[in-house]
Amino acid sequence: MWPGVSLTLGAGGQAITPTTVFDFTNPVEVVATASPFGHPLSQTVTLTFHEDLSKACDIISLKLEKSLTPGLLEDVEADAISQSCILQVPTSAGALSDATGAKLTFSISENAKLYCKEAELVSGVTALDLSSPTVLTVVAQNGTRKSYGLRVAQAQVITWELSKLDYTYGDTPVDVQATVNSHLPITFVGERPEVVTAVGGKLIVGVPGDAELVATQPGHGMWGAAQSVGKRFTVAK
């Protein structure tokens, strides 16, 4: 500051010192006065406080409520919010009757907005297609963006009803009798396919020996991976 300049709060107001506390509830008028070379001068500056817009763009919670989701028997909430969010639907929680019209209940950073494919979402109101993984984007008040992957992982259960485990070399193929509640294709993995294997829904009996065959379904779309089911077969001469 120039020598000889004095600052006051408004014309003729309180002198401003290094310890002056400003109240920016309303605009603050600062008047600078000086008399260089005997000529009185003054200048008035009005200070207005403007808080920066928030850059917070986080998802705090994600939930599917049974009251809004036909087929669900209990609420389902994402256990941990990360860049890859999963809504695990256990068998006890039922299954979504129509995942293409799911309504998420969510909370996000204050003054932020949530979007999916450029469409703004309203918690518990906007229908969202969760039949396959999707991407949610949170836009902060200042325009900062953060994206989150989201998928539903409904529980798959493999039922393998085939009870006969002992066969004789030369036996004809039999129905494998394995199903999964998602109706997705089941893959069979054998430790010794020359002894026993499964192809096209049929159990193929091979050379004599013992071998385990494991039914698997890794998950797809809105279905999580199923727990594998194994059976050990014996083929006699």
Average pLDDT score:
93
Largest sheet: 5 strands, mixed
Global outline: rod-shaped
- Distance N terminus to C terminus? 105 Å
Structural class: mainly beta
Mind explaining what this structure looks like?
With 237 residues, the chain is mainly beta. Helix content is 0%, strand content 43%. It is built from no helices and 21 strands. The protein has strands at residues 6-9, 28-34, 41-47, 59-64, 76-77, 84-89, 102-108, 113-116, 119-120, 127-128, 134-139, 145-154, 158-160, 166-168, 174-175, 178-180, 187-190, 196-199, 202-205, 209-216, 229-236. A five-stranded mixed sheet has the order 6-12-11-8-9, with no helix packed on it. It has a four-stranded antiparallel sheet with strand order 5-4-7-10, with no helix packed on it. Strand 18 (196-199) and strand 19 (202-205) form a beta hairpin. The radius of gyration is 34 Å and the shape is rod-shaped. 19% of the residues are buried. The model has no long low-confidence stretch (mean pLDDT 93).
Brief rundown of the structure:
The protein is an all-beta fold and 237 residues long.
How does the SSE layout of this entry go?
Blueprint: E1 6-9, E2 28-34, E3 41-47, E4 59-64, E5 76-77, E6 84-89, E7 102-108, E8 113-116, E9 119-120, E10 127-128, E11 134-139, E12 145-154, E13 158-160, E14 166-168, E15 174-175, E16 178-180, E17 187-190, E18 196-199, E19 202-205, E20 209-216, E21 229-236
